[in-house]
Amino acid sequence: MPDTQANFSCANCAIGGCAMGDSARYPGFCPTANSSQELVDGVTKRYTGSRKDHKMALVAASIESDYYGRATRVEESLLFVKKMGYKKIGVASCVGLLAECNTFAKIARAKGIEVYGVGCKVGSVDKTVIGIPDESKFAPGSHEAMCNPILQAELLNREGTDFNFIMGLCLGHDTLFIKHSKAPVSVLVVKDRVLCHNPAAALYTTGTYYRRLLGPDLPEPVHCG
Fold it and tell me: Is there a contact between 163 and 84 (Cβ–Cβ < 8 Å)?
């Protein structure tokens, strides 16, 4: 769908005047300018109306203020856990990132945090059980376990984790995990097999290597069978 003034949003803004409260720089389509004060005030009250939400917002803001540009994502994640008072965290990891999961667990345990990790192939349920054709497997005719984010969430729920991290789950599988996790969730590693788990690189290179992304076409599938 082509952009028109009617469907413009923050995705069309390069100013960010809202960050400084500079209403003179709000474009005509600005959601801040076009939201009623009643709506803004009502949402703002929700931060103080819930003790958990209030604390989470304060801790997140304090980490941004105190460690801006100094702490890595791993460090920020563990600072958040400590400041929130969480004792036990879960990690829902891609099995391709178990080495990284183990390293993160060592770092967290060194800070006195208990860690319980669950790999994405847990349960070892063959892909065909949920309707994936055998010919769509990487190795047709063999046992090939499906990713099982709902079981990952259920096992972490049963472990009673206070907070969960996603480490490289496939797109969509991460969504299912977030949906079924009882504990709050954050993302430590975003899956991007092509760009070494750095999806922002594709955005930074749309003027060069990834110019094709600005066209209408998506990649064609490659079947391995």
Answer: yes
DSSP secondary structure, 185-202, as one string: EEEEE---TTTTT-THHH
SS3 state of residue 17:
helix
Amino acid at 187: V
Bridge partners (DSSP) listed for residue 145: 126
Predicted model pTM: 0.90
* DSSP alpha helix (H) spans, 9-115: 31-34, 37-49, 51-67, 73-84, 98-110
Amino acid identity at 141 = G
Q: How far is CA 135 from CA 33, 39, 117, 126, 140, in A?
A: 53, 51, 31, 13, 5
Q: Give residue 123's region: left, alpha or beta (phi > 0; psi -120 to 50).
A: left
pLDDT-derived band at 140 (thresholds 50, 70, 90) equals very high
- In the chain, the domains with their CATH numbers are 71-225 (3.40.50.1860)
Query: Which spans in 140-217 are helix H?
Result: 149-159, 173-180, 200-204
What tokens appear for 57 in the block? Answer: 């917002």
Structure tokens at 1: 């769908």
Instruction: Give the C-alpha distances (Å, rounded to integers) separating 12 from 5, 8, 16, 197, 202.
Output: 10, 6, 10, 26, 18
End-to-end CA distance of the chain: 35
What confidence tens digit (pLDDT) does each residue in 68-85 have?
999 999 999 999 999 999
